[in-house]
Amino acid sequence: MARQRIFSGIQPTGIIHIGNYVGAIKNWKALTDTYDCIYCIVDYHAMTIEYNPSSFFENIMAAARTLIACGLEQDRCLLFVQSQVPEHTELAWIFNCLTPLGDLERMTQFKDKSRQHADNINAGLLTYPLLQAADILLYKAELVPVGEDQVQHIELTRRTARRFNNRFGMVFPEPDELLSITPRILGTDGQTKMSKSMNNYIGILEPPETIKQKLLTAATDPQRIRRSDPGDPDVCNLFTMHKSFSPPEIIQQIAHDCRTAGIGCIQCKETLFAYIMDELSPIQQRAAELERTPDLVRATLEYGAQRCRNIAQQVMEEVRKKTGIR
Ligand code: TYM
User: Fold this and answer.
1) Once rounded to an integer, what is the mean pLDDT over residues 12-25?
2) Which of 95, 147, 194, 196 has its CA 20 to 30 A from that of 20?
3) With 90 as the cut, is the pLDDT of residue 271 above it?
4) Which atom number of ligand 1 is nearest to the Cα of residue 11?
């Protein structure tokens, strides 16, 4: 039986942080064992906010190195850059013409980004989710592993597939999101989602001493003020990280020791740091190797793009026929 197809994407912002990693990428690798997986570096999406053209290409390559180092090697999945497959923007245009403006204006991310970038509310920011829908539907993907912040976009993707199928005839499946066990990681401030733009992130390739420093100063359960106060792991962002990095018996022990004030936050963070580095050290080493072998990275992306172009061209043929262009 054919494997179900998975698609997901990440913006090349120059940094991949622990939120990206435990919310999505760690799952991406695990899923390659059982699914037909396609992963995309979405450079066109990254152009919707102010960016620096002179470092953009290097950011794309850095994202590729990091993703390959996380285990997304060519023999496991397809990895490619969005702009290398022009059918993404072609399909997005057709979706633009099918979607009421109100649907896009209601998107939480559009509202948030319009506030954050009040001097640059461009049309791309508004139609962003339709390019994302095109990314997913172009490959007829059925599952989309993402963090919680993307769920609304996947809902819109389903609605877009339905709208297209009702108007022109059945082409697209309606995909479901697939959340990890830790779909929302807060930043080191403990206030908002971890993100590059909020400068509250821990990068997965940052030097161990930086990671340790950021963890040691990160916000925990705000009610736990003194060392002797019992804490509540369920409201502690660091405990969420433990869930993703530490073995089950340690997670249980930490929860118990936190609730009974058996350990303080510092000890909890030091344990977490050790497990994080167990997992990240090999990734950091592999990423450093890949920096010395750019041809291998380029070849992986080219292989992915070629295979994706083949799939995308076939699906676009279907779309062109259904929409009356051909
Ligand atoms: P992006 O680049 O912001 O993030 C990539 C992935 O990381 C997840 N993520 C988080 N998960 C948990 N906690 C956090 N603090 C955190 N921050 C980020 C995101 O949910 C995402 O899964 N619009 C998408 C990119 C995209 C896409 C697609 C995704 C474009 N086309 C098609 C899926 C399918 C985005 O900006 O992700």
Assistant:
1) 97
2) 95
3) yes
4) 2
**Is the pLDDT at 90 greater than 90, yes or no?**
yes
Known catalytic membership, residue 113: yes
pLDDT, tens only, 219-228: 999 999 999 9
Report pTM.
0.98
For residue 66, the SS3 value is helix
Using most ligand atoms within 8 A of CB, pick from 28, 59, 146 the residue to mutate for ligand 1: 146
Calpha distance 292→212 (Å, rounded): 26
Could you tell me how many residues make up the chain? 326
Q: Which domains does the chain have, with CATH numbers?
A: 5-185+294-323 (3.40.50.620), 208-287 (1.10.240.10)
Residue 289, C-beta contacts closer than 8 angstroms, at least 6 positions apart = none
* Active-site residue flag, 193: yes
Active-site option among 29, 111, 140, 196: 196
What is the rounded CA–CA span in Å between residue 50 and residue 117? 8
Nearest CA to ligand 1 atom 33: 8
Predicted confidence (pLDDT) per residue in 110-134, tens digit: 999 999 999 999 999 999 999 999 9
Mutation probe of ligand 1 site: the residue of 13, 42, 104 with most atoms within 8 A of C-beta: 42
pLDDT for the residue 235: 96
State the closest ligand 1 atom to the C-alpha of 187, by its place in the atom list counted from 1: 15
